[in-house]
Amino acid sequence: MIHLFKSLYFSKVVFHFVVGIVVLFVFAFVFPWLLGIAQLCFMILILLLLADGIILFMAKKGIFCRRDVPERLSNGDENPISIFIENHYSFSILLEIIDEIPFQFQKRDLLFHTSLKSAEQQIIEYQLRPTKRGEYSFGSVNVYVKSPIRLLQRRFQFSQDKMVAVYPSFLQMRAYELMAISNRLTELGIKKIRRIGQSQEFEQIRQYVQGDDVRSINWKATARRNDLMVNAYQEEKSQNVYCLIDKGRVMQMPFDGLSLLDYAINATLILSNIAINKQDKAGVITFSDRIGQVLTADKKAGQMTKILDLLYKQKTRYMETDYEALYIHAKTHIRQRSLLLLYTNFETVASMRRQLPYFRKLAKDHLLMVVFFENTALKTLLDKPAETTEEIYHKTIAEKYFYEKQQIVRELAQYGIQALLTAPQNLTVNTVNKYLELKSRGMI
């Protein structure tokens, strides 16, 4: 009995009726003839409530509901969630559904209204975008049912407490992989890189397609086939590609809900997958005030699973970064010349110069590419016209920091260090383009 009362709720209509009946009783003190009408309305309300309660509770399992959640969620992406509902009542019902999603989303208004005929089924779909890796706990699905009388609501609670892990953006990784298979990477912003020189090994003679270098046309084969034929060259394979992820405090800055660290982690996952598909070896090193987790570069089956698990587990206290420890580790453990993609961030030239000696030492043994981030807020401020003295002052300061970023790129180039300055939302595309460019130029 207590359980029944706990699952019973009055609708707003009941309170409106109660207010109206109370008003009738009040006016009955002045107009006695209203007393009978007020009593009659009260009795009708009681009878309707009893009838509504019997209708709602006559079926022990009036509805069935199930929430379908992926086994894991993709960080920074829209993940599909669905709720399946089936009406077991013999009449049409009105429904209010409240899903208890994880607290990390900070949503308290996830309410759905719908209706179902007898024996009808329905699927409600919505999407969630997590912005932090880790475990997310889903609570119950609360379904409030109204009969055609619409005075009472019966709550059905489907306890589906489920823990779901949020991994780095594997949805983006799959999208890039599918586009690569269908030769449609340009739709994602990946450029077609022209091969420079002929340092690659000869692979085959094939038919000319638009975009091929005309200098690679094989005129003898063209004359024999009466069709344009070109020499195809095989890119050098099995090169080491290491993603070095700075987990220091400079990577704490948020953009569109995600930290710069999570952008770097997502880009690392996608780039590693592309490198392995290109028959290169992919590895990961994380560091902050000390060396974190290390995964040796490899291209064996299961390497991507290891990279995904490593990136998922990354935690940081956002301490000051120790680049000396990174250099010592690379000098000791990375013996073969490799491409090192260092994800970090600098706001001033002075902060970069403090680490420049370590960058130069790394660049002696490896091909080093430093990836850091544009301050998109500064770009927005620069694009906005200044009208007041205060706005002019702010814009002047913004220009100083904006051009310092450009100066960092130029100074790194002076020492033969590749540099990539990118907006966070373009990090993956720009990094992949740079990797393909370096590979086409035979630098790795």
UniProtKB/TrEMBL annotation:
Alphabetical list of Pfam families matching this protein: DUF58
Domain of life: Bacteria
Keywords: Membrane, Transmembrane, Transmembrane helix
Spans traversing the lipid bilayer: 12-31, 37-59
Start and end residues of each DUF58 domain: 204-354
PANTHER family: BLL2464 PROTEIN, SLR2013 PROTEIN
Protein name: DUF58 domain-containing protein
Species of the source: Arcicella lustrica
